[in-house]
Structure formats: structure tokens, C-alpha cells
Amino acid sequence: MDRAGEKAFKTVTDQPNLPGSVRILDVAGEGYRRAFALFMTGTDEKVVTHDYLKALVDQLPRRTLFVDVGAGDGVTTQYVGRYFEHTIAIEPSAPMRQALRRACPDAVVLNEPIDEVELDVRADLALCSHMLYYVPDSAWLDTVRRVLNWVAPGGELLVMLQNPENECMRMVRDFTGVRFDLSDLARRLEPNGNGLVESVTMVTLPTRYRSTNLAEAFDVAELMINVPALRSMRLPSRQELEAYVVQHFSDPEGAICITHSHDILAVRRSSMS
């Protein structure tokens, strides 16, 4: 961890935004929406992950029901849902649900947190995309098993997070000390004779963000380190973050390029369960 990370890792209680510091970005605020839009403009994430999802959907034996847990703004929900007869989308954030309903007017949208949702369904595909950042890692296994119970025998559950060793997540770790890693979850989900899980596989998809606009890249980096734990930490200065971005992510053409490859954990429910 570098000096910026050492300073940031000292915890405090719900630190407010301070002049010159990295901002805590509220998902309902204009700062978050602007930074997220800039990120989506500069990343190939949707192209890469949607290609992967389409290839997987093509191989499913049935496409009756798709369940998207933590559906966000509905971009991926809409893309995948078009191949299914029915879609259920779970999204606790009210601002995200507004965009989700616009993107997916025919989906059933639920607003409860994952641990309060009660579903009696059998989905051919369930997706948890970037949702586990907001769940304590001690609860990951129970959360994923809960969703797996909504999957039909022979169906698939996909869990998506950024790879812990990509450049984005190394920056998160340097500034917050936080690490997200699906590897242990994958091991704990391996078939063990209980009849629920047939197979577990994990792939890594290379994705990157690139921009020739330094100011925009700094805003995106600020968004990237806004993991939930940042709210309870001493905030690093914006100057520290900008210096880190220039030092670590400048490419020979003068642009900022940040890799943020994705791990996708695919869990197939046993056809006998």
C-alpha cells in the first residue's frame, strides 16, 4: 500500500465531504450520475460482458424466466431480458429503479434488499452483477445460495465482480484497503454431495476504461474508489488521487487507461435438485 492508501485506511465515522478531499458519491446525486456516464462512455465493459452473456444464453435449454439481482439502471437487464419470456429485476435503490423501469417496462421490479426478497420461482438464468460489493463477505455464501434456490434444475446462476488484481481494484485497495475476490466463494460452492450444485466455473473477461480527457478520467477514478467502506474512512485528498492516476495509468499516447477486467462465476444448479 502506498502513502495515500495508508492515510485513507485510518477509519472514522461517516466522514462528510471536505474541501479538497475525494467525494463520497451518492447514487442519487448529480456527481455520481455524471461520473457513471463518463465511465460508460469510455469503457468497453458492456460490449464485452454482453457478448459473453449472449453466448451463454444461446446455450440454455430453456429461456422462460430471467432474474436479475441488483439490476441497477436496467441496461444489462434489458439486453438479456429480450431473450426470455419473463424478467424479474431486484433493485433496492429508488433512483436506479426509475431508470430500470424505463429500460424494462415489462419486467416485474422488486424493491426489497436481497435478504428480504421472497420468490417462489424457477429461473433459467439468474444474474448477480456487481451486487456483492454491498454485501459483507461473510454473507456472500448464504446470499448466493439464496439466489440459487430461485434457479431451475439445470439452470445457471452468474455472479460478476471485478477481478481483484486488475488496475482499478488495485487502486481501490491502495486507497481503502478493501479487497473483493470471488475465489473463496467459488471453492465453497464446489459440488459437495448436497445435490444443489452441479458445476462451478470462473472466467475472467478483459475490459478497460480509456479517456484522453484528464479531468473526466479523474472523476471516473473517484467513482471507482467509492466502495461502500469509503464512507467510514478518512478520505484521501483529490490531489493524491489525481497524482496516483497520472503515475499509474498514463499511456504513451497521453491518455488515461485503467483496466477493470471482470470475473464471472458460473454456478449450474444440479438437474436432479
Give short descriptive properties of this protein:
seven-stranded mixed beta sheet, Rossmann fold, alpha/beta, disordered N terminus, 273 residues
Describe this structure in words.
This protein has 273 residues and is α/β, with parallel strands linked by helices. The chain has one domain (3-269): Rossmann fold (3-Layer(aba) Sandwich). It contains ten helices and nine strands. The chain has helices spanning 3-8, 30-42, 45-59, 75-81, 94-103, 140-148, 167-176, 183-189, 214-224, 238-249; strands at 65-69, 86-90, 108-110, 123-129, 151-162, 197-205, 208-211, 256-259, 262-269. The strands form two sheets. It has a seven-stranded mixed β-sheet with strand order 3-2-1-4-5-9-6, sandwiched between helices. Strands 7-8 form a two-stranded antiparallel ribbon. Strand 2, helix 5 and strand 3 (108-110) form a beta-alpha-beta unit. The longest helix is centred in the N-terminal third of the chain and has 15 residues, at 45-59. The chain is globular.
- Helix content, binned percent: 25-40%
Net shape:
globular
* Mean pLDDT value: 91
Uncertain residue segments: 1-15
Number of strands: 9
Distance between the termini: 45 Å
Order of helices and strands: HHHEHEHEEHEHHEEHHEE
- Structural category is alpha/beta
The CATH class label is: Alpha Beta
How many structural domains does the protein architecture include? 1
Number of helices: 10
| CATH fold node name | Rossmann fold
Largest sheet: 7 strands, mixed
Give the amount of beta strand, in percent: 15-25%
Q: Identify the CATH homologous superfamily.
A: Vaccinia Virus protein VP39
Major β-sheet strand ordering: 3-2-1-4-5-9-6
Report the radius of gyration as a whole number of Å: 19 Å
Indicate the CATH architecture: 3-Layer(aba) Sandwich
